[in-house]
Design goal:
Radius of gyration: 24 Å
Oligomer: single chain
Strand content: 15-25%
């Protein structure tokens, strides 16, 4: 696990000057790889290429140093991530007569590329972002994994290309303060995050998951290409549920096994939910000694579920570490956590995720997580809301629905951040759509599209910020498979994986997600949908495949999620800072918001007239980023 950086400049440049730029970029991500750094610079009359990396040593602690080169020194790689099938791939190459000088997965990627070219990228099972310079072709390839677990940003300024694992490195190397992107701005206030290929900045992009950049060094031109996975569609449409259970059990346990290869101590995040419980169970069954499990609870009981984690820890007899969080635990860390995302990011579960990562890092260097289980096996409440939308729209005329919203919204409004039945009913009511937009409304966690129009100045508003994804995914998205695909491209890449990567890497902890295995994704995508969600029973197949290891109905218990009471905090110790962000002079200078509207929303929350937690927290995180990150860029 590492962080990578790179530059491609037109013409000949002094290697020493390029090394200074790369060193500066590396310094910004030292938390991603505190163990080692490495550099490569080559300058010709036509171009200069530079690679850099920071390394967190997990596998091959002694000989895995990067950059790594081919035997003839013509091909160079810097690599961030883990390749879980590297031993199988290594065996394949050994049978072809190749020799290896290390036991690292980095060398396997290098040799695989030498033999298979860009076809090698689809052969990798793992989480990764890497750069390859091939002097034979005068090309650079920058590659990102299937789900987008590892980040990769890039920008082209004139004839120069700059890329890296985190935005802060690109900003440090760029001599011009970037403009705020209208697309990024609108996406953020609708979703609470900004998915690839966009960022909060104009002309700085995220490389999309399962894609690679092919760059011509001579003229600095590039193409973005999707990796062709060539998935086999070999599952019998008539497969029995029992056979599907058997395959699921094997795929999940095998994935846990492949993701537990490490030369350093390893444990699991255990929330007590279905996914982390199954991962922890599978790891415990494969281990010769007690495993370490880690969980957090909250001093506000309505958010605390640590008892469920305790139950699982007792079942698998783990060395369980439990940390109870209060507001005081976050007061000194909140800026560090939120600003480390480098752009506005308002998933409040990043706060406890950081704390559990920080505590976990004191005991182990690698943690397995349950991330991806909901997307892969159909576990979100929002998935069966699609059924509700169809049923509702077939009964209630559109004009009647508009009237109902006017009547019920005030009744369903709450004053406190409890996120109970009234909160959920109101969210569903306002997400109902008669024009095939329902699911996009559901994933709009902060402001609905029409509300974004209300809070932004007209000059900053875009009519449909999600248009790119709708065109990419296609229309008429009404099935569970459709919803899962939307989540994979938007929510998983843009929110869940960003949260886990940045919070864990901030503590120099490597997080691995066994459910994010493209073989499992391919398998579940071929199954009858009612195997994944039977009636209102979510993750039916996964739970039934492992229920024999847990008490009756334990896996059917509802789970609140990794929420934190930020609505209360915004009225408490954060209220003074929040009020500074609605200062009229500051808002006028920003020239971003409809001042009266955004102030009204914030004031109603502060005065306890309405619970506007998600909206106000999204605004708060943006303003904190703007004040402390964007204004600080010279």
């Amino acid at each position: 696990m590492c962080g990578i950086n790179g530059v491609l400049l037109k013409g000949k440049n002094e290697p020493e000057n390029i090394s200074k730029v790369l060193s500066k970029m590396n310094h910004e991500i030292i938390h991603r790889g505190p163990d080692q750094d490495g550099f490569f610079v080559k300058s010709t009359e036509e171009f200069t290429v530079g690679f850099a990396m920071r390394r967190l040593s997990i596998i091959d602690l002694s000989t895995g140093k990067q950059p790594m080169f081919s035997e003839d020194q013509k091909i160079c790689i810097v690599f961030n991530g883990e390749i879980y099938n590297f031993l199988d791939l290594k065996d394949l190459l050994l049978k072809k007569g190749l020799k290896f000088h290390t036991t690292s997965d980095t060398e396997v990627i290098l040799r695989l590329y030498e033999n298979f070219g860009t076809d090698a990228f689809a052969m990798l099972d793992g989480m990764f972002a890497f750069s390859i310079y091939d002097a034979n072709q005068n090309k650079i390839f920058i590659v990102r994994d299937f789900f987008g677990e590892k980040p990769l940003y890039y920008t082209k300024s004139g004839n120069n290309l700059i890329w890296g694992s985190e935005l802060k490195s690109l900003i440090s190397a760029n001599h011009i303060k970037p403009e705020i992107s209208k697309k990024g701005l609108n996406l953020y206030f609708q979703l609470t995050y900004i998915p690839a290929p966009y960022t909060i900045y104009d002309n700085i992009h995220k490389l999309e998951a399962n894609h690679y950049l092919e760059i011509n060094c001579t003229d600095q031109s590039f193409q973005i290409k999707e990796i062709n996975q060539n998935f086999k569609k070999d599952i019998d449409p008539q497969i029995s549920f029992e056979e599907a259970k058997t395959i699921t059990h094997k795929l999940v346990t095998d994935s846990v096994s492949s993701r537990s290869i490490a030369d350093v101590p390893l444990g699991t995040f255990l929330s007590g939910g279905v996914d982390s419980s199954i991962v922890s169970l599978a790891l415990s069954k494969q281990s010769n000694s007690k495993i370490d499990t880690f969980s957090v609870g909250f001093d506000k009981k309505s958010f605390d579920e640590s008892d469920k984690a305790r139950t699982v820890a007792n079942i698998i007899e783990s060395n369980h570490h439990e940390f109870i969080i209060s507001v005081n635990d976050l007061k000194s860390n909140i800026d560090e956590i939120l600003l480390n995302f480098d752009e506005p990011f308002a998933d409040s579960s990043s706060l406890p995720t950081y704390l559990v990562a920080h505590k976990t890092r004191q005991h182990v260097k690698v943690a397995l997580t349950g991330d991806g289980g909901d997307e892969v096996f159909g576990g979100y409440n929002k998935y069966y809301m699609g059924k509700l939308n169809a049923q509702y729209a077939s009964i209630v005329p559109k004009i009647a629905h508009s009237s109902l919203k006017k009547i019920l919204n005030p009744i369903l409004s709450t004053k406190d951040d409890k996120r109970g039945k009234r909160f959920k009913a109101k969210k569903l009511l306002n997400a109902i759509n008669y024009d095939d937009e329902f699911y996009y409304n559901i994933i709009s966690l902060a402001f609905q599209k029409q509300e974004v129009e209300g809070i932004l100045k007209a000059s900053n508003y875009l009519n449909d910020s999600l248009e790119y994804y709708k065109n990419k995914i296609g229309k008429n998205n009404n099935t569970l498979t459709d919803f899962r695909n939307i989540d994979k491209i938007i929510s998983l890449e843009g929110d869940m994986l960003v949260k886990v990567d940045r919070t864990s890497m901030l503590t120099s902890l490597e997080s691995r997600a066994p459910f994010l295995n493209k073989e499992i994704w391919n398998f579940t995508s071929q199954l009858p949908e009612d195997y994944l969600m039977k009636g209102w029973n979510k993750k039916y197949l996964l739970k039934d495949s492992f229920k024999q290891y847990f008490p009756d109905q334990f896996l059917d218990k509802s789970k609140k999620g990794f929420g934190v009471p930020v609505g209360d905090w915004l009225r408490g110790y954060l209220s003074e800072e929040l009020r500074s962000y609605i200062d009229k002079e500051f808002l006028f200078k920003q020239d971003i918001f409809n001042i009266d509207k955004i102030t009204e929303i914030v004031e109603k929350h502060l005065l306890g007239k309405e619970d506007n937690t998600f909206k106000v927290w999204t605004f708060f995180c943006f303003q904190k980023w703007y004040k402390k990150t964007y204004e600080a860029i010279s």
